[in-house]
């Protein structure tokens, strides 16, 4: 009789994902469970596999209320991958089954599929209910078009409709395979976005020894040729090494109205920068002998970059006071890739010294290096392209996740506020 009753009760357990089991990657969902026993303790789990086949998972313990219900919007996790009230905790707290792996979905056509499940806390953890959340990277009606024009290799994302739309140039990484997530999600929010890399993609050179600003100038010119683009200038969205590239684009090239710099440097790093066949900035270099191994197997690299403020390195500083457009600087205070907060403070002081007010800045305590669109798995460590080893990125999962939510909204507000749209210009192109 007991076995029959227990089975009958578990068959009544229901796991719901609201408002829909299908949503954009950057949209929150409400996870609800019903049909449990009064005050029953259960484990809620999430599991997903990225493009490389790496499995990510999380688990949290919850106690049902008197009517046998759990709502992650209001109920706290008692233990597990996170604690406290965290409506999206099962997503951002997922960890890889292999150390030092970053969650990767680079192709925007591949959804992030997450399997949620409810399990008995006692015994073997029998599953009581499950549901699947399909988190898409590209919204309905958004057009994805590979670009291979002149020297440019990338992907263009265009929102549905004739426009006019503001234009954004997206530089996620400097080289290698394109990562389309940020670009496709921004296009889903009403921006024409061109995502590019400088090398290592398609038929581009596998490696480069110098960087040419002319390549990015060509991208800006191409952006204005797209008929749906109605902005008078272009926005630039970057992170890490591409942050200093964006500073140079904004400082040396015209028509850049708004630049988002996330966890970058204030100096030109790693590769000398050329424009019209002349070097305009030398490279601030690294001393990899300063890498510190840790017990986790990942390395600490925060101090390997030479000090950009040292007298002998000041020639590498990007002259951002020349920029005509606006800046949004975002720094994670626990970034272990390099001293992001110090670099941001230096840029703020430099602009103030020159009487400039064309910037805003935000910093995030407890956040690490990879600030991305929200609700993806937090990455504490992974392979570093320059160090050629696993490194620590810093931050704590909970604080980092909150920073991503705030910053992603702020980026969109910043671009909408500062990318002026000219409807007449778009009509003329069409």
UniProtKB/TrEMBL annotation:
The active site is at residues 240, 335, 369. Residues 212-420 form the BAAT/Acyl-CoA thioester hydrolase C-terminal domain. It comes from the Eukaryota. Pfam families: BAAT_C (PF08840), Bile_Hydr_Trans (PF04775). GO terms for biological process: acyl-CoA metabolic process; fatty acid metabolic process. Residues 26-149 form the Acyl-CoA thioester hydrolase/bile acid-CoA amino acid N-acetyltransferase domain. GO terms for molecular function: fatty acyl-CoA hydrolase activity. Belongs to the C/M/P thioester hydrolase family. PANTHER family: ACYL-COENZYME A THIOESTERASE 6, ACYL-COENZYME A THIOESTERASE-RELATED. This is Acyl-coenzyme A thioesterase 5-like. The lineage of its organism: Eukaryota, Metazoa, Chordata, Craniata, Vertebrata.
